[in-house]
């Protein structure tokens, strides 16, 4: 019999599942989303404005968000940063010379460039490319794992060449929340910055904001045109109100409790044999274990109903709660569950059909998710080494988008 989604969700509640993942409200224990009521789920009735041409209460909300950084115009998004990234890419379509992207670009960047009918130039470092006027550079800052680079220098370099820069700041909506957190690219005059409020701040999933530098009002108009094309015509008022709440949270935040609780989690992990890698963003930790693989560590956590954000060879990624005075985050339960972690060897899952892909042309991006960064792009050859990596990921139960369609395609061709 089909298991209902609601049953699956309720089961997590019954187990008091602990969130070390997005969204930033951490099962509504952080922030103040309890002000929301399902009855607030309304539509564009009189008084509630229209997000695609805001003139009243939603214009006020955008203005409130615009105050985050001087010189930017904010627009609320209710379909995640994905919408903002694609709209930003399309907004430059008419003038773009080339789109220059990094190897760690999220799939939405690839999809946006596809829709703009361009082939991206992909590089490891912006400094390896001779930038030309009207090139559009897209960088991920911070990375999913919370690493940052010298974004001020990158922006200066890009602008110095007459190019434009879009910053995918999906994981940085909390930047500048206090001086102990990294700085947003909006301090340094980036052209367009997109932030997922839902990832790191206590907003509902999909609540995001696009910020356009008001130096170029025509870019802003193009962004709004494409947001209108690709975003739902029925934006969720619950999501929008949650962004407002998260922004108030951001403005009033102080970090004393956060650093205290972070240290407690740090110590507890070390006690049970973990190696903890702090990232540039203090809200992220990459955790490994001295005696067990990252996948066994992930499994031990999940068996204890502790849910991390993702696992890669670099470690298990913890996204920490932005603790505050009256939060409801279950720290004590987390600490006692960490103390009692129980490791078992993962049973190996196999998929022999993966071998079929060796030396074949990839017909659809292959994307481990998370983090959502293409591993083999459409049109590239899937090497024997790629297949080996995919088998390793598969054995460790990493979810990989695009594999099934590639396999089905080649099985069909061989029939
Ligand atoms: C680096 C990066 N950019 C963009 C996105 C898309 O953000 P959203 O989920 O808000 O659409 C993600 C999502 O995980 C991401 O990791």
TrEMBL record:
<protein>
    <submittedName>
        <fullName>Orn/Lys/Arg decarboxylase, major domain</fullName>
    </submittedName>
</protein>
<keyword id="KW-0663">Pyridoxal phosphate</keyword>
<dbReference type="Pfam" id="PF01276">
    <property type="entry name" value="OKR_DC_1"/>
</dbReference>
<dbReference type="InterPro" id="IPR015421">
    <property type="entry name" value="PyrdxlP-dep_Trfase_major"/>
</dbReference>
<feature type="domain" description="Orn/Lys/Arg decarboxylases family 1 pyridoxal-P attachment site">
    <location>
        <begin position="136"/>
        <end position="249"/>
    </location>
</feature>
<dbReference type="GO" id="GO:0003824">
    <property type="term" value="F:catalytic activity"/>
</dbReference>
<dbReference type="InterPro" id="IPR015424">
    <property type="entry name" value="PyrdxlP-dep_Trfase"/>
</dbReference>
<dbReference type="InterPro" id="IPR036633">
    <property type="entry name" value="Prn/Lys/Arg_de-COase_C_sf"/>
</dbReference>
<dbReference type="InterPro" id="IPR000310">
    <property type="entry name" value="Orn/Lys/Arg_deCO2ase_major_dom"/>
</dbReference>
<feature type="domain" description="Orn/Lys/Arg decarboxylases family 1 pyridoxal-P attachment site">
    <location>
        <begin position="16"/>
        <end position="122"/>
    </location>
</feature>
<dbReference type="InterPro" id="IPR052357">
    <property type="entry name" value="Orn_Lys_Arg_decarboxylase-I"/>
</dbReference>
């Amino acid at each position: 019999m089909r298991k209902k989604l609601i049953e699956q969700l309720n089961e997590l509640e019954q187990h008091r599942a602990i969130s070390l993942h997005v969204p930033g409200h951490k099962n509504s224990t952080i922030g103040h989303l309890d002000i929301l009521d399902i009855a607030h789920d309304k539509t564009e009735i009189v008084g509630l404005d229209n997000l695609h041409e805001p003139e009243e209460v939603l214009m006020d909300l955008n203005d409130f968000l615009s105050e985050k950084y001087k010189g930017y115009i904010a627009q609320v998004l209710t379909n995640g940063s994905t919408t903002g990234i694609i709209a930003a890419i399309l907004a430059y379509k008419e003038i773009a010379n080339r789109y220059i992207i990094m190897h760690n670009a999220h799939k939405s960047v690839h999809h946006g460039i596809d829709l703009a009918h361009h082939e991206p130039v992909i590089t490891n470092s912006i400094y390896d490319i001779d930038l030309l006027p009207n090139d559009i550079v897209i960088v991920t800052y911070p990375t999913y794992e919370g690493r940052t680079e010298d974004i001020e220098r990158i922006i200066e370099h890009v602008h110095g060449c007459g190019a434009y820069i879009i910053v995918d700041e999906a994981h940085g909506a909390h930047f500048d929340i206090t001086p102990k957190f990294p700085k947003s690219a909006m301090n340094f005059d980036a052209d367009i910055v997109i932030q997922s409020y839902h990832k790191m701040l206590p907003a509902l999933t999909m609540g995001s904001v696009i910020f356009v530098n008001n130096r170029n009002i025509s870019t802003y108009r193009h962004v709004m045109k494409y947001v209108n094309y690709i975003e739902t015509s029925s934006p969720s008022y619950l999501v929008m109100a949650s962004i407002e709440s998260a922004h108030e949270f951001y403005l009033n935040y102080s970090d004393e409790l956060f650093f205290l609780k972070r240290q407690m989690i740090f110590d507890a992990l070390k006690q049970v044999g973990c190696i903890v890698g702090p990232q540039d963003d203090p809200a992220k930790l990459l955790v490994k274990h001295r005696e067990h693989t990252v996948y066994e560590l992930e499994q031990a956590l999940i068996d204890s109903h502790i849910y991390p954000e993702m696992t890669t060879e670099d470690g298990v990624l913890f996204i920490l709660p932005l603790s505050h005075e009256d939060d409801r985050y279950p720290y004590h339960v987390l600490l006692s569950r960490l103390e009692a972690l129980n490791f078992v060897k993962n049973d190996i899952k196999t998929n022999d059909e993966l071998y079929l892909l060796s030396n074949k042309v990839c017909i659809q991006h292959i994307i481990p998710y998370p983090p959502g960064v293409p591993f083999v792009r459409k049109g590239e050859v899937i090497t024997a080494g790629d297949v080996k990596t995919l088998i390793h990921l598969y054995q460790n139960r990493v979810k990989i988008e695009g594999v099934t369609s590639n396999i089905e395609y080649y099985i069909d061709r061989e029939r």
